[in-house]
Amino acid sequence: MKVSNGQMGRRILGFAVAATALAAAGAAYAGTLGQPAPWEMTLQPSASPVMDSITWFHHFMLTIIVAITLFVLALLIIVAVKFNSKSNPVPSKTTHNTVIEVVWTIVPVLILVAIAVPSFRLLFQQLDIPKADLTIKATGKQWYWSYAYPDNGKFEFDSLMVADKQPRLLAVDNEVVVPVNKVIRIQTTGADVIHSFAIPAFGIKIDAIPGRLNETWFKATKEGMFYGQCSELCGKDHAFMPIAVKVVSDQEFAAWVEAAKKKFASNPSNSFASIGTAAQ
Ligand SMILES: [Cu+2]
After folding, report:
1. Structure pTM?
2. SS3 47
3. Of all helices (H) and strands (E), which one includes residue 61?
4. What is the pLDDT of residues 227-255, one digit of tens each?
């Protein structure tokens, strides 16, 4: 098939228009704060400093990847159009070009260094936990989460999915409540099998492993409801053990703690996990 330069130009323009339309659609379908949205194409809106960094790093990487892909595509098109057997019947016998060989070695090294620096900075931000204002222990169980507040009177409660509450498959009976703009340390473990504690808007995902206590942290910068899910295939109801975090002001948090201490205090049969033991 003979393709003229004009046709090729129109095709490239077509691809560019399609790509721009796709990107615009992506921006239009950027999710709702704290939960997934239909047709969402990008990351959930950020609500923590770590997620801000993850979002920035994602855009940074995407820019580099798109630039490299377009560059390689342009080279391929040039080669295919200019150096096919029809337009270039007598090929050149060139085998070496020192300048270009030095360039295609040095430039990728520089690109990798440019990626490595912010990548390590992000890893340190995630793994180096700042001084925590509050610690919450999240225990993954088949198939729900239990939360303990050791700093606030050591109460514990279970959080189970509620089938007829919105958002569907994400709403729970007892939400985790945390104060806004405070460093929350999450300690997580598994009571039976490996689960994973993940909340996209806070940029956290950490395995909950039996016999181990893993730590991560977040600082919620916005008030509201934030949802996550168990992110390690853990059994038949893996899809039905959501994580719901309610971010509130300091005063509301203090009031909730007082109410929760009474609600979840003393009576072990309050705990779904302890029902079996209490009955014996
Ligand atoms: Cu699980």
Report:
1. 0.81
2. coil
3. helix 49-82
4. 999 999 999 999 999 999 999 999 999 99
Q: Within its chain, how far is the Cα of 183 from the centroid?
A: 18
Question: Which domains are seen in the chain, by residue range?
Answer: 5-87+97-127 (1.10.287.90), 134-267 (2.60.40.420)
- Centroid of ligand 1 to alpha carbon of 280 (angstroms): 27
Question: 124 CA to middle of ligand 1, Å?
Answer: 27
- How far does residue 237's CA lie from ligand 1's centre (Å)? 8
- DSSP string for 140-187: EETTEEEEEEGGGT-EEEEE-B-TTSSSTTT-BSS-EEEETTSEEEEE
- As a whole number of angstroms, the distance between CA 91 and CA 93 comes to 7
Which residues have beta carbons under 5 A from ligand 1 (an ion)?
Answer: 195, 230, 234
Tokens of 40: 């969402």
- State the distance from the centre of ligand 1 to the C-alpha of 192, rounded, in angstroms: 10
Task: Give the residue from 218, 248, 202 showing the smallest Cα distance to 47.
Answer: 202
